[in-house]
Design goal:
Layout lengths: L7 H13 L4 H16 L3 E7 L5 E6 L2 H13 L4 H8 L3 E3 L9 H8 L7 E9 L2 E10 L7 H51 L3 H15 L3 H11 L7 H6 L1
Helix pairs in contact: 1-2, 1-6, 2-6, 6-7, 6-8, 7-8
Length: about 240
C-alpha cells in the first residue's frame, strides 16, 4: 500500500524512526528503497554507490529483475541517470525516457530491455560534502513524479544520507570491536602454548597459523580451541618445540 502523505513534520518523524530501527548498513539501504516505493508509489527503487575507480555499484533494489537489468546496463554503458547523480551530485529527473535526449547509449539499452520504465527521479545522498550514494526511483508512467512526490523523495533522501552515515559508523565500530576481541583471544592462545609447551612467541604463533591453514579454519577458531584444551589437535607440538 502506498504511504503518500506530505505532512512535513509527521513525514520527517516517520522516516527517522523507521531508519533508526534498522540493525546494520545492509538493512538500512534495503529499507531506504522500500520506503521510496511506499512513500511515492513508484514501481521500483534502487540505491547505488561509487566503488573503486568511480564505478557504480548497486547496493539495493526492490525488484530483482530490475536489479539485474540495471546493473548489466550500467556496467556495460558507463552513463545514465544514476551515474550522473553520483558524479555530479545533483538531482536528476527524467519526465519520459522516450523523449529524453541525454545519455543516448543508456536510453537505447533501457528501451530494449525487459524493464518497463518511462520516468526516473534520482537524488544524491550527501552528508557534509560526502557522497554516500544515489537513490533512484523508476516508474513505467511518463511524467509520474509530480512536485509533491519530488518533495517527498527529497525528505527521504535527506534522512537516508544521515541513516547510512550512522549505520556505516556503527558497522565500522562493530568490526573494530570484533577485531580487538579476536586479537586478544589469539594473544591468549599464544601465551598458553608458550607456557604449556615451552615455545617462544614466534613458534607458538606459527603453530596456530599452520593449523589454521591446514584445517581451513580461521585463526580465531584455532585460538579458541587452544584456550579450551591447551593444545592444537592433530598437530605435533613436540616436533615444533624440538626444532
Amino acid at each position: 500500500m502506498t504511504e503518500r502523505s506530505f505532512d512535513g513534520s509527521e513525514l520527517f518523524a516517520r522516516i527517522a524512526r523507521d531508519l533508526a530501527e534498522q540493525a546494520d548498513l545492509r538493512q538500512t539501504v534495503e529499507r531506504i528503497t522500500e520506503l521510496a516505493v511506499g512513500l511515492t508509489g513508484c514501481a521500483t527503487a534502487a540505491l547505488w554507490s561509487l566503488a573503486s575507480g568511480d564505478h557504480a555499484n548497486l547496493q539495493a533494489c526492490t525488484d530483482p529483475v530490475a536489479a539485474r537489468v540495471l546493473s548489466r546496463i550500467l556496467h556495460a554503458i558507463d552513463q545514465g541517470p544514476a551515474r550522473t547523480v553520483l558524479m555530479r551530485r545533483e538531482m536528476v529527473q527524467v519526465q519520459d525516457i522516450e523523449t529524453e535526449t541525454r545519455w543516448p547509449r543508456y536510453l537505447e539499452a533501457i528501451t530494449a530491455c525487459d524493464f518497463a520504465v518511462r520516468s526516473v527521479l534520482g537524488y544524491p545522498l550527501l552528508l557534509a560534502d560526502r557522497q554516500l550514494g544515489a537513490l533512484m526511483l523508476y516508474s513505467p508512467k511518463p511524467g509520474y513524479f509530480t512536485d509533491e512526490l519530488v518533495q517527498i523523495g527529497s525528505v527521504l533522501a535527506g534522512h537516508a544520507a544521515i541513516a547510512m552515515d550512522a549505520a556505516t559508523s556503527a558497522d565500522k565500530a562493530h568490526h573494530l570491536t570484533l577485531a580487538l576481541q579476536s586479537n586478544r583471544r589469539i594473544g591468549m592462545a599464544v601465551g598458553i602454548l608458550m607456557a604449556l609447551h615451552r615455545l617462544d612467541e614466534g613458534q607458538a604463533f606459527d603453530l596456530l597459523r599452520v593449523a589454521s591453514q591446514h584445517r581451513h579454519q580461521k585463526l580465531r577458531q584455532v585460538a579458541e580451541e587452544v584456550i579450551l584444551t591447551g593444545a592444537v589437535p592433530n598437530w605435533p607440538i613436540r616436533q615444533l618445540s624440538a626444532g
